[in-house]
Specification:
Layout lengths: L16 H12 L5 H8 L5 H5 L2 E2 L7 E2 L15 H35 L10 H10 L8 H17 L7 H6 L2 H10 L6 H11 L8 H31 L5 E5 L9 E7 L3 H10 L2 H9 L5 E6 H10 L6 E4 L6 H5 L6 E5 L8 H6 L3 E4 L11 E2 L7 H19 L12 E5 L3 H7 L5 H8 L5 E7 L10 H12 L2 E7 H8 L13 H10 L4 E5 L4 H15 L8 E5 L5 H13 L2 E4 L9 H10 L1 H4 L2 E4 L3 H18 L7
Parallel strand pairs: 4-5, 4-7, 5-6, 7-8, 8-9, 11-12, 11-14, 12-13, 14-15, 15-16
Antiparallel strand pairs: 1-2, 3-10
Helix pairs in contact: 4-6, 4-9, 4-10, 4-23, 4-24, 5-6, 5-10, 6-10, 9-10, 10-23, 11-16, 19-26
Length: 640
C-alpha cells in the first residue's frame, strides 16, 4: 500500500498486498480462514462478554451483570468491576505462564549445552560473563561452569517467594522504581510464585476486589519481565549471539517452490537453530538436490522467525521472515511449504485442511503444541535437538517429492528489505558507547521522544496490521523514534518501515538523526519477549539521567494487542511507569470503576496509565502530547 495515513480499508482484510493476493485462492479453494471467520463471528458477539460482564467459573453460572435488569452481582456476589478484572487477570496469568514456559526451556537448554549434551555452544561468552557479573556469579570460572550456574540461578529466581531477595529485579529494574514498588506493594516475587498467587486469587469466592486483583496483575507483570523475559533473552544471546543490525528479507515473496522449504513457527528458537546448522552443511544440500530440489531452505514465521532473523544473516539457505500469525494460512496456501514446525503459541488450530490441500507436513516440536490432524509430534528435548533436526529434514524431503510439480504454487512477488537485530548493545554501539548522544538529540528536540511498540496483530480494529502501520507512520512523522517488538514488529518490517527508505517518512529532526547514524526510524528489537530487552534500554536512560521512568519522554503502545501475552506486557508497562496506549479497547467497558482505576487512578500511584482508542491519528496525537508534557517537566526545549 502507499505511504499515506489511514488508507481506505474498504474490501481489504490486510494492510499487506501479499496477503490480499492470496485471499482469492483461499476462498476459491473453499478454505476456512481467519478473515472470513472473523466476519462471521461479528454477527454473534455477546455484548456481556464484550463488556467483561460474564463469568463461567462455577456451576452457579454462567452469570452476567446487567444493571438494566437489576442484576448488579453474580450469584456469588461478585460485582462488575471485580468480574471484569478477574477475567483480565486470568488472561494475564496465561500470558505470564507462556513466558515462564519459554524461560524454562531457555534455562534448561543453557544448562544442558554447558554439560555438552546439545548441538549448541556458548556463542557470546562476553554476554555470559557480563550476566554473571550482574547477578554476582563468579565470572572467573570455566565458561561451561559459569553457564550451568547461571541457568540454575535463573530458574531458581522464577520460584522465589516474597521473603527472598529478587536479584533480577535488583539488577535490572530502574533505581528509582524499586522503592516506589515497595511502597505500593508491587515489588514482585518470582514469576512462578506470582502466577500461583494470581491463579489462587481467581478461584470463586477468594478475591472480589477489583483493586486487589489489579494490584496482583501489576505485580505479575513486573515478575514476568524481570524473572522470565530478561533472563530468557539474555540466555538466547549467550547461546546464539547478541543481536546486531543487519539487512534481511521479509514477506511471502521469499518462498521458492523449487526448494525444500522448512518453516519454523512459534516463539522459541531451539529447533530452528539446530535445523539451520544442519541445513548449512553440504551433505544436507546434496540430499535435497538428489530429491529433485535446488536445495533446502529455512524460513522464519512469526516470533521464532524473528528470533532467527535477529541473530543470523540471511543467505541462500536462511531466506528470511514471512510475516506474522495472520499470514500463516496465506503462507500455506502458496503451496511451497514442506514442513511447518510449530512450538509454543500462534499455531492456528484449523490449518490441517491447508496441509492436506497444499501438501504440507505439520510437526509439533514442543511439549505443549497439538492441533487437529497433526500426525508428527517431537517434544522438545535439548539433548535430542540434533535428532529432531534430522527428522524434520527427512520429513521435508519426503514432502517435497509429494508436493513438487503436483501442487500448483502461487507466490506473491513481494519481498521487503528490513534492518533487524537491534539491542541495547547495538544502540550503544551506534551512539559510540555512551548514552549522551541520544540524550543530546532528545534535549535538542530532534527526537521528541521514544515509543516502545510491543504488539500482536488483530482484526478487531481494522484489516491485519492497519492500525499498527498507520500509527507508527504518524509517530515517526512527529519525530518520535519507535522501538518495536512482537507481531507488530513483523508488520512494520513487511510494510517497509524498518529500512532506510522509511527515513523519508520521518519528520525533519528524526530524519537527520537516522541519516547520521544510518538507522531506520523504527528499530526492530525482536519479539514480544523483547519487551524486557526494550525496558533495559529505557532503564539505562533513566539511570543515566538519574530520573524515574514517569519523568521520561517515552510511551508504550500496543495498537493491535490480541492475545494473553500482550495483556501482561501492558500491565508491566503501567507498573513500570509508562503511558501505555492500547487498541483495541479491552473487554472491561462495562466496569466503570475498573476503567477509572486503570486509566486515571493508577497514574497517581505508579506514574503509568492505560490510554484507549482505535484511531491511529488520535492515538499518535495523544502520545505526542504526553511526550511533550514530559519534555516540559524535564525543562527541555520545545521541539519544532
Amino acid at each position: 500500500m502507499g505511504e499515506t495515513i489511514s488508507e481506505k480499508t474498504e474490501g481489504r482484510v490486510s494492510y499487506h498486498d501479499s496477503v490480499e493476493e492470496m485471499l482469492p485462492r483461499i476462498r476459491e479453494d473453499g478454505m476456512s480462514n481467519a478473515f472470513d471467520r472473523y466476519a462471521q463471528q461479528e454477527k454473534i458477539r455477546c455484548k456481556f462478554c464484550l463488556q467483561g460482564l460474564s463469568c463461567q467459573l462455577c456451576t452457579n453460572g454462567p452469570c452476567r451483570i446487567s444493571e438494566k435488569t437489576g442484576q448488579d452481582k453474580g450469584v456469588c456476589g461478585i460485582g462488575g468491576d471485580a468480574m471484569a478484572m478477574r477475567n483480565m487477570l486470568l488472561r494475564n496469568i496465561m500470558g505470564a505462564g507462556t513466558y515462564s514456559h519459554h524461560a524454562y526451556e531457555a534455562f534448561r537448554t543453557l544448562r544442558e549445552t554447558a554439560q555438552g549434551k546439545t548441538p549448541f555452544k556458548i556463542t557470546d561468552a562476553n554476554k555470559l560473563k557480563w550476566m554473571c557479573d550482574t547477578v554476582e556469579i563468579d565470572s572467573k570460572q570455566d565458561v561451561n561452569k559459569m553457564a550451568e550456574e547461571l541457568a540454575s540461578f535463573l530458574e531458581a529466581q522464577m520460584h522465589i517467594g516474597p521473603e527472598e531477595t529478587n536479584i533480577m529485579v535488583e539488577a535490572f529494574a530502574p533505581r528509582k522504581r524499586k522503592e516506589v514498588w515497595r511502597k505500593l506493594g508491587l515489588y514482585p516475587a518470582g514469576s512462578i510464585h506470582e502466577e500461583q498467587n494470581c491463579v489462587a486469587s481467581c478461584l470463586t469466592n477468594v478475591d472480589g476486589s477489583h483493586v486487589s486483583l489489579a494490584t496482583k496483575a501489576l505485580r505479575l507483570g513486573l515478575a514476568t519481565i524481570y524473572n522470565s523475559q530478561i533472563g530468557l533473552e539474555m540466555v538466547q544471546d549467550i547461546l546464539f549471539g547478541t543481536p546486531k543490525p543487519h539487512e534481511v528479507n521479509v514477506d511471502l515473496g521469499i518462498f521458492d517452490p523449487d526448494y525444500v522449504n522448512i518453516v519454523f513457527n512459534g516463539h522459541q528458537p531451539w529447533p530452528g537453530v539446530a535445523t539451520l546448522q544442519k541445513a548449512r552443511t553440504p551433505e544436507v544440500q546434496e540430499r535435497a538436490k538428489k530429491a529433485g530440489a535446488k536445495g533446502l531452505r529455512i524460513v522464519g514465521s512469526i516470533e521464532t522467525g524473528q528470533e532467527l532473523l535477529q541473530r543470523f544473516e540471511i543467505d541462500d539457505i536462511f531466506v528470511g521472515l514471512m510475516g506474522n500469525w495472520l499470514s500463516i494460512e496465506p503462507m500455506l496456501a502458496t503451496g511451497t511449504v514442506d514442513v511447518l514446525a510449530m512450538e509454543e503459541n500462534c499455531s492456528p488450530p484449523a490449518i490441517d485442511m491447508y496441509a492436506e490441500k497444499y501438501q504440507a507436513t505439520l510437526v509439533s516440536v514442543s511439549t505443549i503444541i497439538d492441533l487437529p490432524g497433526l500426525l508428527h509430534k517431537i517434544p522438545y528435548d535439548p539433548e535430542k535437538a540434533g535428532e529432531m533436526a534430522d527428522r524434520l529434514i527427512e520429513l521435508a524431503l519426503e514432502n517435497f517429492t509429494k508436493r513438487h510439480n503436483k501442487i500448483i504454487p502461487k507466490v506473491p512477488q513481494h519481498i521487503t528489505k528490513a534492518i533487524a537485530g537491534f539491542s541495547t548493545e547495538a544502540v550503544m554501539e551506534a551512539l559510540g558507547g555512551k548514552l549522551d548522544p541520544l540524550v543530546d538529540v532528545i534535549a535538542a528536540g530532534k527526537i521528541k521522544g521514544v515509543v516502545a511498540l510491543a504488539n500482536c496483530s488483530t482484526l478487531r480494529n481494522g484489516p491485519q496490521d492497519w492500525m499498527t502501520v498507520n500509527l507508527v507512520k504518524e509517530l515517526i512523522k512527529k519525530d518520535i523514534l519507535v522501538a518495536a517488538g512482537g507481531c507488530g514488529n513483523h508488520a512494520l518490517e513487511v510494510a517497509g518501515l524498518c529500512n532506510m527508505d522509511a527515513v523519508n517518512m520521518a519528520g525533519s529532526g528524526l530524519k537527520e538523526v537516522c541519516s547520521l547514524l544510518k538507522i531506520p526510524p523504527v528499530l526492530s528489537f525482536g519479539t514480544c519477549t523483547d519487551t524486557g530487552r526494550i525496558s533495559m534500554l529505557v532503564t539505562a536512560l533513566a539511570d543515566h539521567l538519574d530520573v524515574d521512568i514517569p519523568q521520561l519522554p517515552i510511551a508504550v503502545t500496543a495498537p493491535e494487542w490480541m492475545e494473553q501475552k500482550a495483556t501482561i506486557d501492558g500491565f508491566f508497562a503501567a507498573a513500570y511507569g509508562a503511558y501505555t496506549r492500547l487498541s483495541p479497547i479491552p473487554f472491561v467497558t462495562g466496569a466503570p470503576g475498573l476503567v477509572k482505576l486503570l486509566t486515571e487512578d493508577v497514574e497517581g500511584l505508579t506514574g503509568g496509565k492505560i490510554a484507549l482508542g482505535d484511531d491511529p491519528a488520535e492515538a499518535a496525537n495523544n502520545i505526542e502530547a504526553h511526550i511533550i508534557s514530559k519534555r516540559k517537566g524535564l525543562g527541555l526545549r520545545e521541539a519544532d
